[in-house]
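Notes on consecutive records. When two proteins share a document, each keeps its own sequence and its own token line. Never mix them. Below: protein one.
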Amino acid sequence: MHQASATFRTGDAPRRERAREPSHEWLLVPAVAALVGAAWLFSRAVRYTSGSALGYDLGLAGGIALLVVFLYPLRKRMRLLRGWGASKGWFALHMAFGIAAPLLILAHSRFHVGSLNAGVALASMLLVAASGIVGRFIYVRIHHGLYGTRLSLAQLQAEVGLSSGEMHSKLSFAPRVERWLGGFQAAALARPRGVLHGAWRFLTLGARARWVRHRCAREFAHVYRMHARAFGWDGARQRRHLAGGKAFIAEFVAGVQRVAQFSRYERLFSLWHVLHVPLVWMMLFSAIAHVVAVHAY
């Protein structure tokens, strides 16, 4: 027990940090909601119309932001632009202006639709923006972070390092924890029995992972404290090893979850791309039609 528990160090965490699920991505949704709320408050606090000087300038800024959004896909397809700066900078610009353009257009319209053409242009832009947020959520699960290269399943498995030998060496004194983690790994990585079973497992795996993590961490703490009292370890050592053990359990569960869901996220990303591109072209054509109609009439 003494030797096994000594292998738990809080410094073990960075080794798997890149393979953990990027849960902070959920913060993007409330952030965008807050920006939309700020745009709505601005449209109510300041008196202007879509055709006034301020309204026109907001629409112009939104149109320019929309054009900037297209620079990133153009850079990927035009050899002349590929040498201009790092790809991650262009991608960051693409995402930032992909959020800024709809916000400016919403402020320009004061959250009102004045004509059918304007309604189509606004609706298509909001659909593209929502699609982009969904795509970003999927993107980070099959790439090295937000700006990294695309992963393969073999690369992800190597990064996560789901080693049963390492798990046994660290958890041999807590056989129930080892058995529960092994059972979760086997069930999560088993081949699904059909399409519906695979979809159900994909949707419920997060809840199962949280339950297993909580159950194993509680059992680990109980067993560890009994052994710590038997060996007479001081409080600082107990806290350090408890934190390291719980971190190992959390990282192992998160790694199993990400590997199990990786192929499904790959398919979702391919489907997303098929749907996103037509929406982008619809947005572009409707925006051009709106600008022409405004200036012609």
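Protein two starts on the next line and is unrelated to protein one.
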Amino acid sequence: MIGRRRVFGDEMLLSPHPLPTRPAEFDTVIVGGGPAGLSAALTLARARRSVLVVDEGRPANAASTHAIGGLLAQSGVAPADLRRTGREQLAGYESVDLRADAVIDVERGPDGFAVRLEEGGSARARLIVLAHGLRYEPPPLPGIRGLWGSSVFHCPFCDGWEVRDRPLAFHGNGPDAARSALFLANWSRDVVLCTDGPAQLDGEREALDAGGVRIREEPIRTLVGSDGALERIDFIAGPAEHCDALFVRTRRDQPNGLAEALGCRLSAGGTVDTDLDGRTGADGVYAAGDTATDHFRSVANAIGTGSRVAYAATLDLTTAPRRAAQSRPSRAESLIR
């Protein structure tokens, strides 16, 4: 068999490499084929490093029906199109292998890592890059599922521009939620904070009043909309709140147990702790994109962190046989400038 058929969404791509009868050797295995993983693979490939990208085909933004916003030189590109174009670009590099599969086990050895795949394949790598993103779970509001990613969002930087100057709502309670609602007022002068019960704002009410943000404390009965478009929020008591979009706080955690199994430290927000170049506390393990971003999450940021991690990984590979994370510079630029 010359190659292995790989399915990415509605696409089928043919791997240029046969499945080996023994573990293939790579400089780096990247877990996750989203913007961060593909960006890291591109930078590593251009540094003439061999890369295996393993992707399950379950992007965190799969539910999104909007084009990606805030991405330089790109207007109206859908998330799936961006991933497809990125894979097509990487196909021009012989040192890159992309496989639609899942990493189910990684075992550390004296010279790197042994990676086992769900479909039975295996590989060896000197370094591992975790770029599998996070699992985002919206709050369990009745009616939210049909609206999630279309008119219910979690990031105003990603989707605020598309709903600017319209009636907007933010769901959450506590001082952080109050500040998030105030932040949302950058995109609209008609913002309501829905606390879904008695507000516990710890002195933020005055700031909300000054910022023109209204407060609704009644428990939410359901979200009402059709064809992905939110029309109104119905409460247990009181009038409905008509709005065009709702922003919510999500529950976030790692999509698998790889980070912890590899000895990475996790933050309180569920992300992998890294230095500024994506190095984790575990020798030879890096993290990029949403996997390691506690604050600002966007496609543009994911692409940037993927490239930055690849720079650091290339530098660490270059200093072999000294192992990565030992006696290394704190910033990638210190060696490339």
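For the record: The domain at 5-135+251-336 is CATH 3.50.50.60 (FAD/NAD(P)-binding domain).
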